[in-house]
Specification:
single chain; 291 residues; alpha+beta; Alpha-Beta Plaits; elongated
């Protein structure tokens, strides 16, 4: 997430103007260099050794002055350009921890200020992420939200004497999949599974990405039988999907229901976790709702 802020510290147009100014200032030593070369070409060391040596000396001095002028301009412009790039990184929401500027007190102070801005921006984004109910990777809800929502749905179910089911879905062998295919492939797999889950959600159902390889779904007004039907469809679609390098993945699921397995959100979570473990012990890709 970036910030709608534009930093204009020595833009490229100003950099070009700086180099053009250097070239214009270098015309005098360049002309002197050309003239002396011309003069030296008409002299011979035997005829006028002093004049010949003086001409060569002026040539060397003119060349050295031009080279030193270029180096000076480059040394001034380069750190300013790095500061400009760092400011752009902050505007794009990135960090600048490795930026180092030496030899210019004003730029060092500016870099320090930019680093503080970067850190403050990072801290602010972290707080925003914590407050957001959504998971950035999958665009489903996060664990904090789903627990709070489950507690609300249980109270609603108790009041209206309706069932409320909770399903925990664990992706089998996710660590091994990431080792074989890489982190990016793992993230794409989780996104794909999230989309599959989304296909089967009703108007009031809520799904969340609650851990690296786990998803949780609240099914208001559904009992275990109806929830099992939905979860089996999700498991079937996940198994049929090709992930990474044309690989398949399985999901192990545990289902709990209010009030049969508890009247609090923590009760349903713990029961679903226990049933996932029992299903996994039986076989990957299993589903457990009663044991």
């Amino acid at each position: 997430m970036g910030f709608p802020v534009q930093f204009k510290i020595m833009p490229q147009q100003a950099m070009r103007k700086l180099y053009i100014a250097f070239c214009l200032m270098s015309l005098l030593p360049v002309f002197a260099f050309v003239y002396v070369v011309f003069v030296a070409g008409r002299l011979s060391y035997e005829e006028n050794p002093a004049g010949f040596c003086a001409a060569i000396t002026v040539c060397v001095i003119a060349f050295v002055l031009s080279f030193l002028g270029y180096r000076t301009i480059r040394d001034v412009a380069a750190p300013i350009d790095r500061v400009r790039a760092a400011a752009k990184s902050i505007a794009d929401g990135e960090g600048i921890e490795d930026l180092q500027i030496r030899g210019c007190d004003e730029l060092e102070e500016l870099v320090g200020t930019l680093k503080r801005i970067s850190q403050n921006a990072h801290d602010l984004l972290t707080k925003v992420d914590c407050l957001s109910p959504k998971d950035k990777l999958t665009d489903l809800y996060n664990a904090v939200y789903i627990r709070e929502r489950l507690a609300e749905e249980i109270q609603r179910a108790i009041h209206f004497q309706r069932p409320c089911a909770f399903a925990l879905i664990k992706v089998d062998q996710m660590d091994a999949f990431v080792m074989r295919n890489g982190k990016a492939a793992g993230e794409e797999a989780l996104k794909a599974i999230a989309k599959i889950i989304g296909k089967y959600l009703g108007e009031f159902d809520r799904a969340a990405h609650i851990a690296v390889d786990e998803f949780g779904i609240i099914f208001p007004d559904k009992n275990k039988k109806k929830t099992i039907e939905v979860i089996e469809l999700i498991q079937s679609d996940v198994l049929a999907f090709k992930f990474g390098k044309n690989e398949t993945l399985t999901t192990t699921c545990g289902i709990s229901e209010n009030p049969l397995d508890g009247v609090q959100a923590q009760n349903l979570f713990e029961k679903a976790v226990s049933r996932v473990a029992k299903a996994a012990a039986r076989a990957p890709g299993s589903l457990e709702a009663f044991a």
